[in-house]
Amino acid sequence: MLRLIIRFGLFFLLGFVAPLGAMSDYAYAKAEVKEVRLAAHKDKTRFVLDITEKVSFRIFTLSNPYRVVVDLPEMDWLNEENLKKKAGGHVANFRYGLFIPGTSRLVLDVKGPVKIKKSFILPPANGKPYRFVLDLVGTSPDQFMADMKARKAKARPPAAARAIIPLPRTLERSQKPKGAKRVVVIDPGHGGVDPGAISLNGAYEKRITLAVAKEIKKQLEATGKFKAILTRNRDIFIPLRERVNIARRADAELFISIHADTIKNRRIRGASVYTLSEKASDKEAAALAERENKADVIGGMDLSHESKEVSDILIDLARRDTMNESAHFAEGLVKKLKGRIKVLRNTHRFAGFAVLKAPDVPSVLVELGFLSNRHDEKALRNPKYREKIGMGVADAVSYYFKKVEKAQGS
Question: Which residues contact 85 (CB under 8 A, 6 or more apart)?
Answer without folding.
Answer: 36, 38, 93, 94
